[in-house]
Amino acid sequence: MAAFDVAKARAHFPSLKSGFIFGDNAGGSQVTQGVVDRISDYLLNTNVQLGADYSVSVESTRRAMTEAPTEAAKLFNAASPDEIVFSHSSTMNLENVARALEGDIKAGDEFIVTSEHEANVGPWKKLAARRGAVIKTWKAMPTSEENPYSLSLKIAELLPLVTPKTRIVAFTACSNILGSIVPVKAVIAALRADAKAKGAPKVEVSVDCVAYAPHRLIDVQDWDVDFAVFSFYKVYGPHISALYVRAATLRASLTPLVHHFLNYEHTAYKLQPGGPSYESAYATTGAIAYLESLAPAPAHDLKQAFAGIAAHEQTLVVPLLGFLTHPAQRARGVRVVGEEQPGPERVPTVSFVVVGPKRIRSRDVVGVFDRRGGIGIRFGHFYAYTLVRDLSPEIDIEDGVVRISFVHYNTVEEVNKVIEILKEVFAA
Ligand SMILES: Cc1ncc(COP(=O)(O)O)c(C=O)c1O
């Protein structure tokens, strides 16, 4: 495989020309010129109400209702664009799924959730409260004896939670704090086999792919998942979210959220009350075209594009984790929050805390970067509230963790600059 051409990738992002080091990409990525062009093209040339028969409306409908879901289906490997729905955020999309499922949930049903970003936790907790269902939590456990914060989700902790009453299982494909990839296919296969053996009649699985989609290619068919969601503003596109709903689940379990006279029983559109931002929906096609451009012509295969992304991202995560887990840093009290070892299951979203007698608050670490300027990193709980709250009594929830999150357009030089500043912070 040819080496990943980071300069070629960066040339698509006008904002990177400023030289600012974007290290908060798990919060939101930069957008390509192609995305910006499509937003203005839509607004300047086809900004009319969809569904009419005049030529401009025909084109706006094609862009927003055909081209956008057809292209997004590629990023999910969905069988049909009818399984894709857009909403302004992944939080809203998952809340909509939970509301549409309400009629198919009964008292005593069990939901298994994780302590991850609240978007794929809160809607299930609220649904459980409305219907008298029971919540169980699949907990991340430390992978290193030396570091109680080296948390990772393992199948071994999930299966004992499965019973004949298990109805919903909701987890993240990649944590926005821990930065490690959950083996989604293996988890779902083990879960479904176990649920079947225990006699659970109907289990539906919801996977939050928001922190996964910038780094790896989703495959809903291979994963055998019912609901999957990600936000394009983290995948080099505009502020809009795409949700996948398996066609059979759509028909069997979900009640439409749209007006009673709209006949959308068999498409994911039944989960879309009101229209999303059509210019954004159309502009997502620019993000996908960009990702395809990273793979060699003529196939422009997304699998190859993401293989290149993953390979380059390893060159970013290796030095950063290597520095943070060096014995000198460990002695200083630095603790990575998440899996410590780089590898194919680790993306360059790296969180840490500084504990011990010479504790440094996360706020103060980030403050040094902010005062210097030119680099954007962040501290906090990043809406993975329960995960951070339960880390340790020593960690205050509002102070949380320091998170440095790179993507494929970041360079090794940028990572080294961040490491140089961290060295000074830890030496002080
Ligand atoms: C893992 C994860 N899930 C869900 C979300 C929520 O996405 P949205 O802002 O589109 O609701 C985020 C946002 O940070 C996230 O990181």
UniProtKB/TrEMBL annotation:
SUPFAM superfamilies: PLP-dependent transferases
One Pfam family matching this protein: Aminotran_5
Domain Aminotransferase class V, chain residue ranges per copy: 22-417
Domain of life of the source: Eukaryota
Annotated InterPro entries: Aminotrans_V_dom (IPR000192), PyrdxlP-dep_Trfase (IPR015424), PyrdxlP-dep_Trfase_major (IPR015421), PyrdxlP-dep_Trfase_small (IPR015422)
Listed name of the protein: Aminotransferase class V domain-containing protein
Lineage: Eukaryota, Fungi, Dikarya, Basidiomycota, Agaricomycotina
